[in-house]
């Protein structure tokens, strides 16, 4: 799939990674639709910064299927040639640790709604928009018979996390829900394969964005101890390289690409020592 001449939805498009991905797509000749929850004035200014006619902003709650559907329809109308999505939108709710597991139930529900359900909704609405001319010929509401193609028609990239690969207590809610994102991607790669749409996942380690900026020292210590190389947070600019690779690599489908410097999540619990969770109060 070429970037040039094509349009891609970017959820979380006003964030640190989203901005890098949007810039990279525009610099490679594509157009972007930025989906986020921030004020429309802020979003419209950001979209305009990419150049006239190259980007639009849509204020969208990714957990609301109808909101996403309407926003995607606007993208098709205003930018045209929709070919896929880079789904970055996610939240991480942080709290102090206690020994009461039920303290996390409400947080789990909130993160599931955005991080996991939101992934399925965005993927479904974008894929259906790409397939609409063939699924509903002549704009009718009637569904066409099942069809297949050998043409590459779209690409969706969801964002998992290194936390999905090393499930432990410090990622009590976030990790399992990102693991579910990997499962959604793998399943949808099979479902959408006949219609020529690829689905993959990128799982970064630590990218220093607003979501975890206050834990920079803690994460750096962990990377120094448990990553292979490089043992530092991933620059957001490096994430776009993985996005570009997955957009352009036709034979990569149903895969999860780890961009983590070989970081392996480990909990050190020395006998008689301090539980590592207490070193990062508020991590989750």
Folded structure, characterized:
This protein has one domain (7-279): Rossmann fold. 38% of the residues lie in helices and 14% in strands. It contains seven helices and seven strands, in the order βαβαβαβαβαβααβ. A seven-stranded parallel β-sheet has the order 3-2-1-4-5-6-7, with helices on both faces. α4 packs parallel to α5. The chain is globular, with a radius of gyration of 19 Å.
Write a short abstract of this structure.
With 284 residues, the chain is of the alpha/beta class. The chain is built from 7 helices and 7 strands; from the N terminus they run E-H-E-H-E-H-E-H-E-H-E-H-H-E. Helix 3 packs across helix 4.
Structural class designation: alpha/beta
- State the strand order across the main sheet: 3-2-1-4-5-6-7
Amount of helix: 25-40%
Looking at CATH, the homologous superfamily is NAD(P)-binding Rossmann-like Domain
Name of the CATH class? Alpha Beta
Report the end-to-end length measured between terminal Cα atoms: 38 Å
Low-confidence runs:
none
Give the rounded overall mean pLDDT.
92
CATH architecture: 3-Layer(aba) Sandwich
Provide the succession of SSEs. EHEHEHEHEHEHHE
Q: Please report which band the strand proportion falls in: under 5%, 5-15%, 15-25%, 25-35%, 35-45% or over 45%.
A: 5-15%
CATH fold topology:
Rossmann fold
Query: Helical stretch count?
Result: 7
Protein name: 3-oxoacyl-[acyl-carrier-protein] reductase
InterPro entries: NAD(P)-bd_dom_sf (IPR036291), SDR_fam (IPR002347)
Keywords: Oxidoreductase
EC number: 1.1.1.100
């Amino acid at each position: 799939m070429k970037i040039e001449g094509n349009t891609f939805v970017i959820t979380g498009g006003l964030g640190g990674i989203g901005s890098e991905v949007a810039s990279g797509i525009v610099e490679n000749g594509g157009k972007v639709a930025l989906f986020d929850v921030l004020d429309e004035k802020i979003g419209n200014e950001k979209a305009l910064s990419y150049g006239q006619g190259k980007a639009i902003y849509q204020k969208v709650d990714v957990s609301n299927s109808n909101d996403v559907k309407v926003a995607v329809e606007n993208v098709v109308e205003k930018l045209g040639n929709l070919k896929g999505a880079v789904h970055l939108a996610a939240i991480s709710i942080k709290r102090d640790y206690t020994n009461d597991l039920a303290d996390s139930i409400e947080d789990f529900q909130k993160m599931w709604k955005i991080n996991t359900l939101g992934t399925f909704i965005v993927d479904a609405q974008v894929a259906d928009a790409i397939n609409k001319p063939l699924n509903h010929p002549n704009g009718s509401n009637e569904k066409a018979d099942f069809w297949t193609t050998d043409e590459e028609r779209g690409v969706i990239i969801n964002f998992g996390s290194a936390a999905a690969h090393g499930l432990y207590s410090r990622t009590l809610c976030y990790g399992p829900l990102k693991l579910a994102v990997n499962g959604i991607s793998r399943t949808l790669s099979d479902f959408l394969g006949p219609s020529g749409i690829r689905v993959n996942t990128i799982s970064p380690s630590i990218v220093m964005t607003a979501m975890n900026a206050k834990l920079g020292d803690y994460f750096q210590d962990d990377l120094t101890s448990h990553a292979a190389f490089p043992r530092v947070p991933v620059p957001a600019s490096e994430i776009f390289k993985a996005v570009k690779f997955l957009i352009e690599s036709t034979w990569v489908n149903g895969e999860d690409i780890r961009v983590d410097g070989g970081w392996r999540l480990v909990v050190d619990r020395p006998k008689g020592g301090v539980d590592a969770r207490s070193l990062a109060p508020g991590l989750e």
